[in-house]
Write a structure and sequence with these properties.
homodimer; about 280 residues; alpha/beta; Protocatechuate 3,4-Dioxygenase, subunit A; five-stranded mixed β-sheet; 6 helices; about 25% helix
């Protein structure tokens, strides 16, 4: 019979049905989603049982989500989608600016303002004392005074303050700083450590089935912003950390790896300069 | 900087990470999934807010699923994925056999055996009396004696027996028949009616946002099987039904639409012949 429905014919029928979507952006997204979803199924010749396994995986992932656990974000992270969305929206391969990376789930706004040189350690966890410092400048090399550095990272236990409300002070290992007249920032802290993403759900199971681990390489999170420049959200990674080549959420970029070098009195020193992208006309992005 | 991570470079990194998957089929599926998922995000330039809307949609879809509600299957159905998987696994555009369509959520195995000519109506719902009959034959036209026809459909209220355990007998509008020596089958029933898929969850919301309705065209479900032939799962649609051109789960195929024509004594007659695909060597698929 010449009028039998073909696989491509079915896809065309679904796309045509979506033409009635009134919001043009939603129409574009849904039609692209259907094209790519159907192309995936056709390419791998998805079987009935595999389809059902996918339905069950998504259902378990949804059931694992609650007020404090977001298993779909973990799934997006471990499939590299979160990092890709970050690249799409916040990067520019032609730029000389510092590369961005993902925000992650542990950012808390309104960290305390602190003075350059101050410590962000409010709780002794036995971590290795560390000084982090550097300069914030534009792509032309000119130092930026008054830039804001908003920093957060985990304790030597592996946990962020927000994960341990009964043990760590809420503002432990968090702080906001302003660069001085020469664009310099400096703070004291402890060395960050690698940590696992939650691995007791479907995403952890999928990682094991695909021969992967659940660890993130050790890093400090920073948001850097200044009037007239594009805001930056990034990490600085410890060059001595495990998992730099296999960070399970694909957050590592070579340019974000820094030395935590031995300094005076057994204190480590991490020097890292941030380069902000100056938007045309000096507009704030 | 020439070593900045590009979008394509990130995708390549994720694909390489999946090389460690020990099961070759899982590796193939996951790598194809990542390629198509990333291609989707790159093509539409998925924004941070759209990504988060997607995470929330999937989470709500998961939370809507319980023992009796499967919102991810509804999502698959309304995106045409279920029909595509059916085509991939159970159709053959070169074949002369009756086209398959989706199983749907209301199939219950072990329907009662009934004699040709018997009624499957066990509960008076005021539906229009109908006779359904025809012949089961192979692609060569030879009648198949002893073929099994397993039928189920909804009542005039719109509901299947399995949806109304307190109102309809469990085996209402269900039955199994065997074709006679001439390959003929016949049963009495009531006319099926259109019905909406559940529309009070995220999938219903998405249908409305994309200008679609939640209705299925009126149909009778049938599984047809016989030794030496590929089992068939399909529907027969009522040519007078609304929604034939917009069945919300993409189950309609032109060749599956039949007349429910006025017969003697005000009883409708639907004649439909089924053609089974004979597997090579007469093997059972």
């Amino acid at each position: 019979m010449t009028d039998r429905l073909s696989e491509e014919g079915l896809t065309a029928e679904v796309l045509a049905r979506l033409d009635a979507t009134s919001d043009p952006r939603l129409r574009e997204i849904m039609q692209a989603l259907v094209r790519h979803l159907h192309a995936f199924a056709r390419e791998i010749r998805l079987t009935d049982d595999e389809w059902l396994a996918g339905i069950r995986f998504l259902t378990e992932t949804g059931h694992k989500c609650d007020e404090v656990r977001q298993e779909f974000i973990l799934l997006s992270d471990t499939l590299g989608l979160s990092s890709l969305v970050d690249l799409i929206n916040h990067s520019d391969v032609e730029s000389m600016a510092t590369e961005p990376t993902i925000l992650g789930p542990f950012y808390v706004p309104e960290s305390p303002w602190r003075e350059n040189g101050d410590s962000i350690v409010e709780y002794d966890d036995g971590g290795q004392p560390t000084i982090v410092r550097g300069v914030v400048h534009g792509e032309d090399g000119a130092a930026i005074a008054g830039a804001v550095i908003d920093v957060w990272h985990n304790a030597a236990t592996g946990f962020y303050a927000v994960q341990q409300p009964d043990e760590q002070p809420a503002t432990n290992l968090r702080g906001r700083f302003r660069t001085d007249a020469d664009g310099r920032y400096e703070f004291r802290t402890v060395r960050p450590v690698p940590y696992p993403i939650p691995n007791d759900g479907p995403v952890g199971h999928l990682l094991r089935e695909t021969g992967r681990h659940e660890w993130r390489a050790a890093h400090i999170h920073l948001k850097v912003s200044a009037d007239g420049f594009r805001p930056l959200t990034t990490h600085v990674f410890d060059r001595q950390s495990d998992y730099l080549d296999s960070d399970t959420v694909f957050g590592v970029k070579d340019s974000l790896i820094a030395d935590f070098a031995p300094g005076p009195d057994g204190v480590l020193v991490c020097e890292y300069d941030f380069v902000l992208h100056g938007d045309e006309q000096g507009e704030i992005a």
